[in-house]
Amino acid sequence: MSKKTRTKIIEAAHQLFIQKGFDATSIQDILDKAGISKGTFYNYFQSKNDCLIAIISVVREEIIDKRRELAFGKDKADEEVFIQQIAIRINMNRQHHLMTVFETVSFSEDKELKEHITNAHQGEIRWIAKRLEDLYPSEGHPYTLDHAIMLIGITHPMLYAARLGVDEHITTETIIRYAMRRLRSMLDEQISQKDLFFPKDWFVQTDVKEKQEQEHILKNRLVALQKVVKEEKERQYLSFLLKEIQEDEPRHFLLESVSASLEQLAIGMTYEHKVKQAVQWMARRFHW
Fold it and tell me: What is the model's pTM?
């Protein structure tokens, strides 16, 4: 199967979902837009839902890559890095019109599709909460899930209001900085009053399940790569990563550094894309 053909189908479906809406787009519409046969479509996707899930996954992987590149070698406690990372997702969602697409499926009765979108939203909340732990003092860690939810709740309505006003120069980053100031002003009072709404384990069941799935996929990808890489140095890096991810407390800075070195070695190799995918799974699992 051709990666180029798969990409063409995804792009055609994406455009149609934006233009016509998810429910109003038929498989035949996608076939016509992509210029392919029904048989070709079903070689790559089982349904229209699979196309949407693929679109979300492609954008998510791009966001992970951009966030990781932005943060590499920088202090995780640098609030400006965090602000830029949050802005990446918001700007990417806007660029790809994902909010429009999400709205068109909000009333879908398809359980698998709704679960996938729900998991994507929960994953972003958990990522923000985890990153806030890098910024907050230890006594503020119990409140990071509350603040992750509030950060999203402040940012998105303000972005909408900014587009309605006369000043078109309010950036995404400006709004996120404002939201962070408001959250920080609340933190000391919450700590002193122990005013917690959502405990950190609020998503614990889905979190544990997702972690187990991510670890299984990641381990399989790394093991598979060991069979195809050519350089001894690459095999050493993969062995280290496999061992480290199974530790009780994996050292994230080492995983990140070794992964970056592995990616550099794989540039131009036939397995470059597979290495990139494995590193993306690593970043997703350990919230880089």
Answer: 0.74
